[in-house]
Each structure stands twice: as structure tokens, then as C-alpha cells.
Amino acid sequence: MVNPSLPVRNSTFLLCAVNPQDVYWYLPMSHAKGSFLLFSFFIAAASLAQTSDAPKAKRPVATVDGQAIYEEDLGASVQGQLQPLRNQEYDIRRKALDSLIEQKLLEAAAKKQGVTTEKLLVQEVDSKVPDPTDAEIEGYYLAVKDRMNRPLADVKAQLRVSVKQAKTQQVRQEYLKRLRADATVAVLLSPPRIEVRSDPARVLGNRKAPVTIVEFSDYQCPYCRNVEATLKEVLAKYGDKVSLAYRDFPLTAIHPQAMIAAEASRCALEQGKFWEYHDQLLAGSKLEKDDLIGYARNLKLDDKKFESCLTSEKYKTDIEKDEQEGRKAGVNGTPGFFINGLSLSGAQGQDAFARLIDDELGRKSTRPTSASISITPIERR
After folding, report:
1. CA angle, corner 146, sides to 140 and 149, nearest 5?
2. Do residues 244 and 305 share a domain?
């Protein structure tokens, strides 16, 4: 509320700060003739602001016999196809950003020493790189001689320059890493994310972990078997900070036992042994029905109940839903991962997982939780 004892010197500010009734009653008497005009102006401005804040009507992108199709309707059908393009765009932007960060770090270090950036690199890096030895040149030659088709004596001088340049570039990168480690660098460029769902009954580790890995996998896929050890290492390394959620993505066109193996895992879930059975499937080499029942017996499951469940195929529709959601998210092969919604494809090494996980954990400590992807649980039937 404006103090009525104070003169009104800035009516524009007051119009933004008080109610229209205040504008009228607290105008000095000498301005009474203009008060109604000011009040009318405020009402018009407020109406205009409300109009601009109102949600805009959706505009169709097509109509079919009078029925509109909107941009939002395209989302589910094109998201998987667009995601690789979004990832490519992000990779290009991230590389450009990293180059700019490196330039800023070099400029700061050069300014501190009172030299140019190029002189800094020569002083701190180039001058400390030794010339390549004859053994290094010969080793490099053996690696590329099929492409050169020339004897070593003819290209030795050229190779000496190439090897020296390669070593210098490597040492420069190591120097830049040290500069970055000693500086405070916060990367705020956010990679593209896809909201993926998880099944709480098939989550390994802390369900409230700040980082969730959602895996789309196939029990008959050799690459899925290969990455299993890496996943166990990742979970052991990060403890309660990372959880793993499993989803089915059987590639039935090339893996004929993938579907029944996925169904068997759901039947094991009924008896509370999903992850133990999951490990049996990935460790075993046979996935015929009798083998699947044998794995259940190994885990002391009720084999009659298990066999009845497996024969009924009652989880086939749920497994197909997993696959459909994976395809919508851009999965086209196994294993496919989403780390807090960030895509990672194939049987990657631990470093690939660690890079994304460390970024996410760093984001959690510097950003609001609302900035991260939400993992929506699957509704259980």
C-alpha cells in the first residue's frame, strides 16, 4: 500500500505496483481531473496483459475431413526417429562448447604468466615433448605401411614430423585437462533426454537413487551378456547413488528364444526371484522351455506353478509393451540404456557409464531436482 502522505511523483511506477483503486484514491486532489483517465488506462493495460498471458489456441498441422491433427500428436510416433538427430546436435554443440572452455582456460593461464596463448603452449607443452626415437618411428611405420606402399627410408623424415605432432597434440590435451581440473568449470548445456518408465518390481538397488539406469535388453543377445559384468561393476562403484531398472526388448526376428526367456523372467518375478533368475538366463547358454524350467528348479521355485505360468503366455502382452515403449524412445537394438533419460547404446565400457553418471551426480549437487528426468513407474496390473 502506498503512503497517502507522500506525493505521487512517479505514476508509471505506481501503476505497475498498486491496485487501480489505490491509484484513484491516493492521487493528490490537484490531479482529480486526470484520475479517471489514469484509472481507465490501468484497466486497459491490465486487460491487455491478461490477453497476452492467456494460452494461445493450438494450431493444427493438418486436417482430415474436418478433424484436426496437432503438433503434439506427432510426438509419440516421431520421438524415436528424432532422438538420434537430437543427440547429434548435442554432440556438435558440446564439442564446440568444450573448445570454447579450453580457449578460456588457456587465455586465463596465459594472462597469469603475461604471455600469449600460443607462447604458453610452446613454453608449457611443445618444448617438453621429446623428439620421437627410431623405434617409435619404425613402430608407427609398421602400423601404416600398407597404406603408404613406400619403404621406410623414403618416408622416415615425414613420419618423424607426424609422430612428433601426434605426441605434441596428446600432451597438449593432457595439459588442458590439468587446467580444467584446477579451475571451476560448470557445464550447464543440457543433453537431450527422453522420459522413460520403469517397473518398481524390476529395479536393482536403491529405488530413490539420484541416478537410474533403465536397460532395454534381450536374454538371447550376446552383447547383453557381455555388458552384464560392466553393470555389476557400475552398481558396486556407486552404491546407493545408482539403480538399475530392467525392461524387455526381445529381438524375436533374430533371437527365437528371446520372448519365452522374457516370459520366464516374469514368471520368476511372481515368486520373488526376478534378479536371481535374470542372472541365470544371462549366465546360461540354453533357453529352451525345459532349460527355463530347470533354472527355476535351481532357484528352488515352485516348478509346477512356474511351468503353468510359462505355458499360459500371460505376460506376452506386457513384454510387447516394453518393446513398444523402447522403440518410441529410440531403441533399435540391444542393449539400450537411458541414464536419467540420457541415451547410451550398445555394450559400452565402464568409462562410458561413469562419464554420464558423474555428470548427473554433479548436476544434482548444483541444480534443482526439477531439472532432471522423471522416471515414471509402470502401472502394475
Report:
1. 100
2. yes
Q: Which domain holds residue 281?
A: 197-377
What single-letter DSSP state applies at residue 183? S
Same domain, 218 and 335: yes
Which amino acid is located at 143 in the chain?
A
**Residues sharing a CB contact under 8 Å with residue 344, sequence separation 6 or more, in sequence order:** 336, 337, 338, 352, 353, 356
Cβ pair 200, 328 in contact under 8 A: no
DSSP β-bridge partners for residue 70 = 60
Contact 194, 341 (CB under 8 A): yes
| Omega within 30 of 0 (cis) for the link into 28 | no
Q: How far, in Å, CA of 1 to CA of 17, rounded? A: 9
Domain-terminating residue out of 125, 149, 182: 182
Return per-residue pLDDT of the chain as tens, 381 residues: 444 444 444 433 333 333 433 333 333 444 444 444 444 444 444 444 454 455 567 889 899 999 999 887 886 667 767 877 888 899 999 999 999 999 999 999 999 999 999 999 999 999 999 999 999 999 988 888 888 888 988 889 999 999 999 999 999 999 999 999 999 988 888 888 888 999 999 999 999 999 999 999 999 999 999 999 999 999 999 999 999 999 999 999 999 999 999 999 999 999 999 999 999 999 988 999 999 999 999 999 999 999 999 999 999 999 999 999 999 888 989 999 999 999 999 999 999 999 999 989 987 665 433 333 334 444 444
Residue 54 lies inside a defined structural domain of this protein: no
Cell of 214: 533403465
Q: Are 172 and 207 contained in the same domain? A: no
State residue 211 phi and psi, 5-degree precision: -125, 125
Beta strands in 280-365 (DSSP E): 336-339, 342-345
- 204 and 171 inside one domain: no
Name the domain count of the chain.
3
Indicate whether 161 and 204 sit together in one domain.
Answer: no
Q: How many Cα atoms within 13 Å fall on the side-chain side of residue 83? A: 22
* Largest Cα–Cα separation, the chain: 102
- In this structure, is residue 189 part of a structural domain? no
User: What pairing do the DSSP bridges indicate for beta strands 211-217 and 242-248?
Assistant: parallel
Strands 67-70 and 197-198: unpaired
